[in-house]
Amino acid sequence: MKKDLKYNKIKVRTSSMYKNKGKRGKRYMKKVEKEKQKNNFTKLTHKKGISLIVLIITIIVIIILAAVVILTITKNNPVSSAKEATFKEDMASIQDELSMYLSKKYTDNPTSFDKSSVNLSGDSMVTELPSTKKYKDKVSVIKGKLVWAGETENNTEYKWFSEVTDGATKKSEEWKDTIASVEDGVPIPKGFTYKEGTKDTGLVIKDDKDNEFVWVPATESTYVKDTSLRGIKPTGDDTLPMGITDETADIVKYGGFYIGRYEAGIPEGDTSPSNKKGIPVSKKDAIVWTNINYTNAKASAENMISNEYVQTGLLTGKAWDTICHWIKSDDELKDSRTYGNYNNSESPANVKGCGTKQVAGYSDKWMVKNIYDLAGNVWEWTSEAFSSFFINRGGSYSDDGSGLPVSYRNYNSAYVADVSVGFRSRLYIK
After folding, report:
1. CB-based contact 320:393 (threshold 8 Å)
2. Confidence band, pLDDT 50/70/90 cuts, at residue 13
3. How far is CA 374 from CA 210, 316, 336, in A?
4. What is the dihedral of CA 255, 261, 263, 266, to 10 degrees?
5. What is the model's pLDDT at position 31?
6. Distances in whole angstroms, Cα of residue 396 to Cα of each of 288, 325, 329
7. Model pTM greater than 0.85?
8. 29, 191, 292, 409: which is deepest, by most CB within 10 A?
9. Strand pairing partners for 312?
């Protein structure tokens, strides 16, 4: 160890000597500097070499990921293509099996067999058509035809189904006798066309005479009478329109019902309201039909439209309550001053003209879910009974919108024809 120490001291002295003495010292220092530069370059090159390798690997990974993404969102995706091919083959097999099933049915009963009587779904369909087992929740047989029974919106399988069939759905087949088209899941009856709105905002349809109706979503469980709402309590059953025996039949089948967008207007050609039977209109700017008693209002509502597809009539208590709960919250049903024509309407409903009777659809501030004047303007007859009387709903232009809000039940004799009482039609799909 002492020897090593002595050597190091000699080395240090020697280095110092070369550093400090003449040309030899300068040559030595240049040599040392070159060695340092060489070492630094080697280190730098090594680091750059590693960085380059990492960069190349990163680029390769990005390219692979990009390729996977592109394949996933295009038809070139081999996994998706295989699923599509399998699905379409399965549908073809089901179609073949259904054809054989119907042929056998016809062979067994050639004189009485009716293809349109064949309706299969779920487990009963699987029993008759084993190839449907995998798809029993997605397809059905309606009137002898294979139809899609699952979701349709943004559904890849339904898209494939449509490519190998005519794309018929369970609803479209069940509804085709009375329904012209479907908009946002809402049935448009034959004789009507879509005008505007959605199922959530209030979907509007019109007939060939420009009468307008709004769709109210409902189910059998939500279509109920609410006797907890303010006013008198109904005591009897509602009187249904002629030809209608069940007011929930169209609700169960179609998932809702239509009501007049506007309070009933006086018949075309009339110039003022009167207590008579006639054919009302449901149009913007129509003179609202008041001064009409319950008997004539009921008959006129039923006269509005009656054909093989639809039937109109007065609103029932269940219909009115269902509408109320759809358009507003429970608290808002207790005070209608901000969205109805009353003598004390508040902003934004306190437009010029509030507090007096106005034409149908006078202000958009008095519209909720595309329905005008349900709150205020005039009371509306319903077919709901209170003892020997009939119930009015909705309040009027001369009333207090917090004391007599949209949901309030009032009553009048069937013979009363008042300037502040009118009516509105409901549209039943047969």
Report:
1. yes
2. very low
3. 20, 14, 10
4. -120
5. 67
6. 12, 20, 21
7. no
8. 292
9. 427
Question: What band does 35 get if pLDDT is binned at 50, 70 and 90?
Answer: low
pLDDT band at 19 (very low <50, low <70, confident <90, very high): very low
The per-residue DSSP string of 149-169 comes to -S--TT-HHHHHHHHHS---B
Q: Is residue 227 part of a domain?
A: yes
Residue 241 is given by DSSP the state P
Cα angle 193, 194, 195; round to 5? 115
- Asked whether 399 and 380 are in contact (CB, 8 A), the reply is no
Which amino acid, residue 298? K
Q: Could you read off the pLDDT of 121-151 as tens digits, one per residue?
A: 999 999 999 999 999 999 999 999 999 998 8
Read off the DSSP letter of residue 267.
Answer: P
Q: With b meaning 16 or more CB within 10 Å and e meaning fewer, what string describes 395-408?
A: bbbbbebeebbbbb
If one counts the domains in the chain, the total is 3
Same-domain pairing of 119 and 157: yes
Tokens at 235, concatenated: 């005591």
Helix (H) or strand (E) holding 11: helix 2-20
Q: Is the dihedral of CA 123, 127, 129, 130 positive or negative?
A: positive
Domain presence at residue 305: yes
Q: Is residue 63 very low, low, confident or very high in pLDDT (cuts 50, 70, 90)?
A: confident
Determine the average pLDDT of the residues in 98-117: 92
126 CB neighbour count, 10 Å cutoff: 16
Same domain, 168 and 256: no
Rounded Cα distance, 339 and 387, in Å: 31
pLDDT at 44 over 50: no
Q: Which residue has the tokens 């008759």?
A: 128
Do 255 and 149 sit in the same domain of this protein?
A: no
92-123 burial, b at 16+ Cβ within 10 Å, e below that, comes to eebeebbeebbeebeeeeeeebeeeebbbbee
Question: Do both 145 and 217 map to the same domain?
Answer: no
**Same domain assignment for residues 384 and 240:** yes
Residue 171: band (very low, low, confident or very high) from pLDDT cuts 50, 70, 90: confident
* Full domain range(s) for residue 367: 204-429
